[in-house]
Specification:
This is Transcriptional regulator. By secondary structure, this protein is an alpha/beta fold. It has 16 helices and 16 strands. It starts with a strand and ends with a strand.
């Protein structure tokens, strides 16, 4: 599979991207070099025959994201805690004095707060401005300049080229935060994963976010060890389900898959081997969120929603959110089911024969009493859709099951109704 990436960035970043990908014949970088952020839209209007947009800077993407008209996947190089940490390290090495009395601009202030906490630094000596909500360049420059002029800071770290340029003109000591090569690598891997699944428009895409929770009782070394163990577990899972796994942060991973991963999940609602293995090997709570979608972007969005649900549980947990945004889970936790009571309802109210009744009980048990469609019944019984619908109608008529929602089809057609045992 050949992946054509339209990479938007300044000359130095595009050069680094091309250097990293030059040995990979399956990846073609289509350079979109700009000197001013205002040039990006014009570049986008003249780039053709690419599979994905890649932005190497966070601020320029925020500037143009609402103006993008073409319907292509968009990936941004992650501006994360690791980038903040490496910038602190380089500053410490260059100045040879304790960190402090500095100001910094980042995409999200939480990135700096987490690093300061991990390094046990005095947060009062570091001034932070974040621009995730779209702060103008002049406001960011004024923030840094006023702190320096008032004698509160000695140095400025900035993630934005234009801010560095203006501060230099004002005579303010500053340093650009450069994106680590590992962040570039993650973005490229994410581009190839997303394109791989978007090229098959009829495929049901599954995304999975896996996150090790950071807690006050675990130090950085312990967290790192646990994350390395988790990465090894996820690599084996990815091989088994023909999916791809990318490490996004020290404690967060994303997997993309299609039919094999979905089959694995739906066949293991009740006993989930991945969850059991993680519980066995990892001593820190882990959140696992699966998302289904018509494309990788939608699946990823739903996986994010699922992982937020996990955060409400005090221990390791796993949830799935389908493309109708219905929550399924917790996966791997047995839900109560009374087989004897269900059997009586199937025989006497739905008027099913013994064999069909036993098969249906097995089907519901396997799915851990999660919602199902007539398509799921047809697959399990190995019968036609028409035959499955006849069984569904008997179950509805006997009030054994009820309609609980719909799921959108992954090709053309009407939405499928979802059912659950009453």
């Amino acid at each position: 599979m050949s992946v054509k990436i339209a990479a938007f960035g300044r000359k130095e970043n595009i050069k680094r991207l091309k250097q990293y990908t030059k040995e990979n014949k399956q990846i073609e970088i289509i350079p979109q070099i700009y000197n001013k952020v205002t040039e990006i839209i014009d570049l986008m209007n003249h780039v053709y025959q690419c599979d994905v947009y890649l932005f190497t800077e966070a601020y320029p993407y925020l500037y143009v994201k609402d103006k993008i008209q073409k319907n292509l996947p968009i990936i941004t190089v992650p501006y994360d805690e690791y980038m903040v940490l490496t910038s602190f390290f380089h500053l410490l090495k260059e100045t040879n004095r304790p960190l402090g009395r500095l100001s910094i601009d980042v995409l999200n202030q939480q990135q700096v707060n987490k690093v300061l906490t991990d390094l046990r630094m005095d947060a009062n000596s570091v001034y932070v401005i974040d621009y995730k909500s779209g702060v103008p360049i002049d406001t960011i420059v004024s923030f840094h300049y006023n702190l320096w002029k008032e004698g509160k800071v000695d140095y400025i770290l900035t993630t934005i080229h234009d801010v560095s340029k203006q501060l230099t003109k004002l005579g303010v000591p500053n340093k650009r935060i450069h994106v680590p090569i590992i962040n570039m690598k993650q973005a490229i891997e994410k581009c190839t994963s997303m394109v791989q699944f978007n090229q098959d428009k009829t495929a049901q895409v599954v995304a999975c976010y896996v996150r090790v929770r950071k807690t006050d009782i675990h130090n950085i070394d312990t967290l790192q060890q646990q994350c390395e163990k988790l990465q090894a577990i996820l690599k084996l899972f990815a091989q088994k389900t023909h999916s791809s796994v990318v490490r996004l942060k020290q404690n967060k991973f994303v997997l993309f898959g299609t039919k094999e991963m979905l089959t694995y999940v739906t066949n293991n609602y009740r006993h989930f081997p991945l969850l059991e293995r993680i519980n066995e090997m990892i001593q820190i709570p882990v959140d696992i969120g699966f998302g289904l979608g018509l494309n990788a972007e939608q699946a990823e969005k739903h996986a994010n929603l699922a992982i937020d649900v996990c955060a409400k549980s005090p221990q390791t947990s796993c949830y799935l959110i389908n493309d109708s945004q219905e929550t399924i889970g917790p996966i791997g936790v047995k839900k109560h089911l009374d087989p004897a009571k269900l059997y009586q309802a199937l025989i006497h109210r739905a008027r099913l024969n013994n064999e069909t009744s036993y098969h249906f009980i097995d089907f519901i048990t396997l799915r851990n009493n999660e919602p199902f469609s007539s398509h799921d019944v047809a697959d399990y019984y190995r019968v036609t859709k028409r035959s499955a619908e006849r069984t569904i109608n008997k179950l509805l008529g006997g009030k054994v099951i009820k309609v609980v929602g719909e799921e959108k089809p992954y090709t053309r057609g009407r939405p499928r109704k979802l059912y659950k045992v009453e």
